[in-house]
Structure formats: C-alpha cells, structure tokens
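Hi again,

Forgot to attach this to my earlier email, sorry! This is the prediction with thymidine-5'-diphosphate bound. I've pasted everything inline since the attachment limit keeps bouncing my files.
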Amino acid sequence: MSTLITLEGLDGSGKSTVCESLQSALPEVTFTREPTDSWYGDLVTESMHDDSADSLAELFLFTADHAAHLNRVIRPSLASGTAVISDRYADSRFAYQAAALADSRIDAPLEYIQSIHEPFSRRPDATVYLDIDPETGVTRAGATNKFERVQYLERVATQYERVIAAEPTRFYRVDASQSIADVKKRVKTIVGTMLGDEVSTES
Ligand code: TYD
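Structure tokens for the complex follow:
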C-alpha cells in the first residue's frame, strides 16, 4: 500500500521551502501541489489574483483542480506503489474557502465543503501542519495576493484548528516559528516515520 502525505499551513509557514528540501531527500516519492501545474490550476491562479472573484465560484475552481489532480497524478502514483507528498490538498479548501465563505449564503461552509469532497476525494494518510501565527506568516510571505491578509489568515487558522480537532490522529503539528533548519528536520523525521520502508530517508 502506498502512502499519501500532505503539507498544510498558512501562507508564510515555510511550507514550500520544506517541500523543496524533502523533494531532494526523497527522489523516489512523487511530489505535487495544489493548485496544480495544469490549465485547471491556471484558472485557479487567475481567480486568486482577482480581488472581485466570486468566492463560491472559486471554491468550485479549486475543487475541479483537485478532482483532476486525483485522477491525473495522485491515484496513478499510489496505484503504481509510489508514495505521494502534496504541498496543499483538500484541507486548504476546508480552511481557506470555509473562511472565505463565512458570510455567504452557505450555512456551515466547512461542513459543506467537506461534503462535496467526500464522494470522490482520497483522505491523506498523514498531514503535516506547519503552525505559524498569521502576523508572522504575513510578514514572512509579503502580501502578494488577497489571501495573505492577517485578518483573513486568522479566520483560516481557526478553520484549520477545527479540522485538526476533528481528526487529531491524522495531523502532525510542527511549530513553524522555529528556524527553518529545525522545521525541515522535524518534518523529515515525521515523513521518514510515515513512509517507513517505502523509501530511503538517508539523504
Ligand atoms: P501559492 O502561491 O501556491 O502559496 P503557497 O506557497 O502558500 O501554497 O498560493 C496558494 C494560495 O491559494 C494560498 O494563499 C492558499 C490558497 N488556496 C486556497 O485558498 N484554497 C485551496 O484549496 C488551495 C489549494 C490554496
């Protein structure tokens, strides 16, 4: 059985740097990300950079990208026995879009978003959550798009906490305010344990 591990966290949590370092240490693993590098992902990126984008439409764009990602990358890799590590995955929707839809006509956005994933998605075997406070995240990331505002990220963090509280055994929380070297080390240990003998974690 092959393993699916996801990395989650607020903008500025150091997630992308950690993923790059994991990738060079684990050449046998399929590394991927959401939004994906595909035309579905391009549409998502276009929407993210439009401050007037409709939040509900954006949820469906992200979810469409996820559906294609599962069928084109994740399921084929897992089926061939290759472990997969994804930089962001469904939990990003559960946190970011639940926060974005908080004042919309959708009641209970988190539960709604989870319900539209449930019929087709694949739950990660483990999720590493890089825990950073929103202010530090925004300072580190720089506000390059509308998702990177502190108030919004505070609401996103609250949604992540709700998801983690509901599934505590899936999540591995890492203090991302530590030095990046310490964060990388901690994440490598967690991933190495999860992958066990699926890959060599020596490098
Ligand atoms: P990106 O530049 O890839 O940031 P990062 O390196 O932090 O992953 O932009 C991704 C942005 O999209 C980020 O702000 C989180 C947001 N996002 C969502 O709102 N919903 C989603 O489902 C995903 C995958 C990302």
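The longest helix spans residues 55-79. The chain is about 55% helix and 10% strand.

That should be everything now.

G.
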